[in-house]
Amino acid sequence: KNYLEKNQDLDYILDTGDKIQIIINPELPEFNTISLIDINGTINIPRFNRVYVAGLTINELRNVLNEKYEEILNKPDIEIVINSYRPINAYIYGEVVSPGLYTLNVIQEKINNDLLQKQKYINNSSYNQKNKFQKFPTIFDIIRKAGGITEYSNIEKIIVTRNNSFSNGGGKIRAEINFA
Question: How many Cα atoms within 13 Å fall on the side-chain side of residue 4?
Answer without folding.
Answer: 0
